[in-house]
Amino acid sequence: MLTQVLTSLVVSKVQYTFGQFTPIHLAKMEEGIALFNEQKYWECHESLEDIWMEDRNDNARNIYWAVIQVAAACIHYRNSNIIGAQGMITKARQKFERCRDLRVLTDLAFKYLSWEELEEIVFKIPQGTESVLADYAELFNFRFKNYQKNVE
């Protein structure tokens, strides 16, 4: 898939600036996204954490970070740990906001990571101690729908 993504980048001649989410970032997320879609949230977290560390000086890492924290919230939900889920979703919200504030998001995030849908689900969950476990069910059942399709 990485070859497809890089080839499409050259062919499409889309201009990305440093810190924006590019086809290279998307390709790096392939394993983590597949694990998330299989509800293997811990494994997703581990996979994405590696690339999050690798891209330490790149603002686009905030996308990885948001997904890592959403995955962690799902682990806590599955374990009926409301306090853990509340803490992780609060941190994930901050990463979603940071992605917008730093202008990290590109069409790739919206198209292949269902970013708008995921963001909406995250922000529907009541903040802090106002949320209950049932508020996390929709997030737990979320899947990255377009990721398996061919990357243009």
Using brief descriptors, characterize the structure shown:
9 helices, 152 residues, Hyaluronidase domain-like, mainly alpha
Structural notes for this entry:
This protein is mainly α and 152 residues long. The protein has a single domain, classed as Hyaluronidase domain-like (Orthogonal Bundle), CATH 1.10.3450. Helix content is 64%, strand content 0%. The chain contains 9 helices and no strands. It has helices spanning 2-12, 23-28, 30-37, 41-54, 61-78, 82-101, 107-112, 115-124, 137-140. The longest helix is centred in the middle third of the chain and has 20 residues, at 82-101. The mean pLDDT is 89.
Q: In terms of topology, how is this protein built?
A:
Elements: H1 2-12, H2 23-28, H3 30-37, H4 41-54, H5 61-78, H6 82-101, H7 107-112, H8 115-124, H9 137-140
Helix pairs in contact: 3-4, 4-5, 5-6
Question: Could you list the spans in which at least 5 consecutive residues all have pLDDT below 50?
Answer: none
SS strand fraction: under 5%
Number of strands: 0
Helix amount: 55-70%
Gist of the model:
With 152 residues, the protein is mainly α. Helices cover 64% and strands 0% of the residues.
